[in-house]
Amino acid sequence: MTVDIAPQLPLAKDFSSFLSLEGAARKKSPLKGLLRFMKDDMISLGGGLPHPSTFPFYSLSAEVKAMGPADATVNGSSLKAVKAQPETVSVPHYPQPGKTESLTATLQYGMGTGLPSLREFCKGHVARMHKPQYRDWDVVLSAGNTDGFAKACSMVCSRGDKVLVEEWTYPAALEMMEPLGVGHIPVQMDGEGMSAVALKDLLDNWGTNPEQAQQAKPRVVYLIPTGQNPTGTTMSIQRRKDIMQVAQEHDLIVIEDDPYYYLQFFVDQQGGWMPSLLSMDTDGRVIRLDTFSKTLAPGCRVGYMSMNPQFCQIVQYHNEVTTQQPSGFSQAILAEMLISHWGQEGYKRYLTENVRMEYLNRSQHLQKSFKAHVSPLLASYNEPSAGMFLWIKIHLEKHPRFGNVSDSALMLELFNKCIANQVLLVPGWQFSCKSKPSDIDPADLLNSWYDDDARYLRATFAYATFEQMEEAMVRFGKTLEDAFAA
Amino acid sequence: MTVDIAPQLPLAKDFSSFLSLEGAARKKSPLKGLLRFMKDDMISLGGGLPHPSTFPFYSLSAEVKAMGPADATVNGSSLKAVKAQPETVSVPHYPQPGKTESLTATLQYGMGTGLPSLREFCKGHVARMHKPQYRDWDVVLSAGNTDGFAKACSMVCSRGDKVLVEEWTYPAALEMMEPLGVGHIPVQMDGEGMSAVALKDLLDNWGTNPEQAQQAKPRVVYLIPTGQNPTGTTMSIQRRKDIMQVAQEHDLIVIEDDPYYYLQFFVDQQGGWMPSLLSMDTDGRVIRLDTFSKTLAPGCRVGYMSMNPQFCQIVQYHNEVTTQQPSGFSQAILAEMLISHWGQEGYKRYLTENVRMEYLNRSQHLQKSFKAHVSPLLASYNEPSAGMFLWIKIHLEKHPRFGNVSDSALMLELFNKCIANQVLLVPGWQFSCKSKPSDIDPADLLNSWYDDDARYLRATFAYATFEQMEEAMVRFGKTLEDAFAA
């Protein structure tokens, strides 16, 4: 498919000056220069590719969910055409008419941008869903969002830099940056995620306190705008606009990590899918990270990065000397399923009717169980509108020993009681961005409850069965009452 | 399976002081600390894993080469039991008796070490084939050898370090290091690959020339011991021992990149597979990189790293914040094929009878075609005993204009004539380790023939058909004669 892009839109600005030492030094691979000679009757003894006849794999197939023919639309009548039985997606050894891919192509070495057909599908999907407001945006496949974030970060952050992050955030992002010598600066959050006011305030007044005087003004912000991990918050449209305005004012690169985007529960009530930060980007400053991990399965290890063409090229070069591209087995199955079977419309319908509904139901079930079994005096949460998480605030001030012992000690005691009562929730401090004592073992939950602000527990409704969720809330409710009893 | 390791062997030495800034800073992920609570009747609302019932994949299968039952042996009678027809490898949605894996497990998030069953298989294979000479070596899966090398390099090299490399080497390795600010120092080669004498000499005399005085003594050597890319050389057993002795004397980390190990043509004549550097490692100083790219298919994007336990742990942590683990589709198919169908013995037989023989035949065919059509006065090569490459030396001294114009100009002219005559070989300079002018476009083959020593062209016999190889040599032979005519 060809992606239509409005010709009146501007081209991306030049963000060369934002490249890290590493990013700026990435170059095209010499061996890839051979490709341009491959035309006419050329016989190549050039690239060291194994001959596909040597692959011991002759065909690949999967039984997958049927989402109807590729040309199905979302209106009622065509929905009826959708088969209830699984359908078989198969990839032949050699190219065949009617097939998008073959094992000959997908199991061979390929481009750092990813399998062309799958990349085009992803680009088409981004064009439909996000419509970036500049002309030359492009898409490169990653091996999932952790891989994509690592590549984005190493492209725009050098040792000594600090990245602006939500005050509670995905720990693996911080763990990725730390060994590179890239620090982080927490930005205050509210019920809609990162506060644009706090972000603006921090940047407007940068350098006015002595600690900041030693530190260059941050140029990169990392955030999870939808169903944020761990707080479950989703930015309103206005908040998104405000964040993008601050990003423009202060010339920031925005890393939009959005794995939960399609886990928006109230798409119908809210008048459609939330506009992404990418959809508001007129400059090419947003690096949007999408993944199939939450929509299809984590084991796909396929994601896609949407961003300006220079960034795409640098990540392509990075791919070429590291991961090369996602697995050919993954790409073959995904391309054949998404392109030959589901189509853009089928995939969108799958997201709307399956992914979204599944997590809506799960979210509501956990909340119902919470309300039935947990005292609202002792704990509460803000209802999430997307994602996988309930961010439970513990009302420590109701604890009989509140003020006599530290909040940390009370939270640790509560966590231990939860474990004793066989219900596991994640301690909030694990997502804290405050600087941790250097001698702490980050993997030790019990001895490290040092953060007095961490009055939270994160519960996910993604994995447990409905029965388990209910039972978990029974246990949690009892544990809380027990812990708060005199 | 359990890997038997001789109890009398020593434990790995401590290589902590070799860790880079990045390597030393890698830590365990806090969220992984949750796993230890998962026992008894614990209900976890902890890890944000999608429920496997949401995966739209219900089964996965592949037609693969049959290598007989898992318990087949290599003796004559059991070989007859091997079926000539492909067999079907299938992976069910949920665990089933008799199956190694299920999609529930393989398409879920997993450990940074890789899928346990596949990792165990790889470890068992390493134990059979390489038998490292220390007790606590271990294996971590990678997304192929480029990914493995990138992770090894970032673990033991900091910005400003320089790595010892063969004077002709795999360009992507240099391209990986360069953006990290990691340089390289070429070590002279001969017909057996890197010279141990040159390596020892360079290190014995380190710091005696003014250029080296500014540079710390190198601590890491990167080499491709078998079917080296691009020269096709394979280290003799003695050379391997000598290299390991220098590595011990000068306390070097050895990165053994060995993708062509199983493409050894003369296993029978030479009395078995060459001993790897890992097989001689008594200290834990070798990081061995293996991959399924050349033995099964590049698109697997699965490799495995064998090394000391500290290095394994650091790469595991690195995986957890980047690629996570290889694709679940790849791992599922490979685990089921290698474990439930082929077994260790079947895989070894596949390597011996298929991979090795295929490349032996290809190598011999290209050599036969070379001898039939290319004048031995104008070009020659050393017969390779492994790998994919013929490293063709051009006898420039026979050129009528030799000495009047630069060697570079003559080689560029020859390359252009090859292209005009529709035969593509890779210019030797692309594999050169000499420092290149900074304004060079590494992807431009034609304008960058600057290295006067680069009198080589690399030809691969891996990809072309037998007919194409013959025709390529006809074209190359004529081109050479034309270029060398007065």
From TrEMBL, chains A, B:
Domain Aminotransferase class I/classII large: 104-473
Database matches in InterPro entries: Aminotransferase_I/II_large, Class-I_PLP-dep_aminotransf, PyrdxlP-dep_Trfase, PyrdxlP-dep_Trfase_major
Cofactor: pyridoxal 5'-phosphate
Any one biological process term the GO annotation gives: tyrosine biosynthetic process
Protein name as catalogued: Aromatic amino acid aminotransferase I / 2-aminoadipate transaminase
Source organism per UniProt: Entomortierella parvispora
Family listed: Belongs to the class-I pyridoxal-phosphate-dependent aminotransferase family.
Pfam families xrefs: Aminotran_1_2
Keywords for this protein: Aminotransferase, Pyridoxal phosphate, Transferase
GO molecular function ontology, one term from the record: aromatic-amino-acid transaminase activity
